[in-house]
Amino acid sequence: MSLACPEEWAARGRALLGDDGPWIGVNPGAFYGAAKRWPPERFAATADLVARRTGARVAIVGGRRSARSARRSPARSARLRVSSAARRRWATLVGVLSGLLLLLTNDSGPMHLAAALGTPLVAVFGSTDWTETAPVSARARVVREETECAPCLLRECPIDHRCMTRVGVDRVAAAALELVAP
User: Fold this and answer.
1) pLDDT digits over 61-99, tens only?
2) 110: preceding bond cis by omega (within 30 degrees)
3) Which of the two residues, 160 and 32, has the higher pLDDT score?
4) Is residue 171 in some structural domain?
5) Is the residue at 1 inside a domain?
6) What is each CA distance from 59 to 39, 49, 51, 80, 148, in whole angstroms?
7) What is the CATH number of the domain that holds 95?
8) Predicted pLDDT at 85
9) Is residue 139 assigned to a domain?
């Protein structure tokens, strides 16, 4: 599956991102429920590590929940937050995603859009079945922890969220750097 970003949409993305990239996008939200969300402070730490190694800047991508997550634990290197208004305008979101060096994300709609665009991405999976909903792209990596309770397909974890809390920053950063290292 692939998606071509029309030039007009790409121009919208460039207008938001600016020319001082390259850009790493961080999408810490996921609509289905908290069980699908890797801790926002881990996204921030991963983005900082990858940004330092690549010279990239960080853009927070997503809706209101992503913005709230980012405010709770912003990446030190974050220079831009793509507003929830951009998320509601699919053309703008597609334009932003197409202009990224890399997307760090949960299992989410923007993950699938980025995969279809061919944008390199690392997706952290927990409660959902990665064999069913993994991004379809040779430029995508899934990072997950094998646990006895996953995939549970629940919106909220009734125990300790081990499928996500056992996924470390170093593993996600290593997968990201594998995709974008020169």
Assistant:
1) 876 555 555 555 455 555 555 554 444 578 889 999 999
2) no
3) 160
4) yes
5) no
6) 17, 14, 11, 5, 34
7) 3.40.50.2000
8) 44
9) yes
